[in-house]
# Entry
Amino acid sequence: MITTTWSAHRATPDAARPAAGSAWFPARSGPADPFRLRLYCLPHAGAGASAYRSWAGRLGDRIDVVPVQLPGREGRFGEEPLTTADGIADGLCAALAERGDRHWALFGHSMGALLAYEVAHRMSSAGHPPAHLVVSGMTAPPLAAGRGRPAADSLGDDELVERIRALGGTPRDVLRSAEMMQLLLPVFRADYRVCDDYRFTPREPLRVPVTALGGAADRGAPAAGLAAWRDLTTAGYTMRLFPGGHFYLHDRLDEVLAAVRAACEGR
# Structure
């Protein structure tokens, strides 16, 4: 078991609401297996752990998919959503430290990629780096802030719903349900604030291999933005583009899973 003190818990207001480690990982999993790798999957803005429900059992018998549940959604709906990348990363790192996995990796799509990067740095500094960092649909963190779009806090509900609709990742029946959107908009606002307020902190490059995946038609995470992840690691970098936009992985899931599996297995 790895123990560490996350001093940021005392300094970050978001971290003032601690949660049991198990709350972050709603899917049942047995004790850590020295012959298997746990792949922790962080969701995009507005999403919960169920975004990775279809991944279970599809990465071979050596990789366990562990969806991450952020506060404020699904089984943690009663908690306030966190609004900073630091607050989320600190809480998740504390939960990961409790688990003490020997072999583990990270996957994150969009906002999840930003959070996965912050987690990778914190866990590396604590002497427990991931075996691999797979990022998807997100420009490298040094370029992620200040991308020119209006902050979500400045948008009315209708404008925010239109932004969500334009990304294409939310089912139409959910977007059309006033009741559902009333419940979900606070989560989307909190998550967009995470991204809008994010500021990159220059640090030593990771000593963790990085694989960057993206949609060739994703204007929010173009090839140049994905390529910039190369500068954030000294341990090897790979990039792969798929046909499609920001949520390319929904239509190309088999190919994406094959790429994720190859990355985690070092192929």
In short: Residues 8-25+33-145+202-264 form a domain with the Rossmann fold fold (CATH 3.40.50.1820). The chain has one domain: 8-25+33-145+202-264.
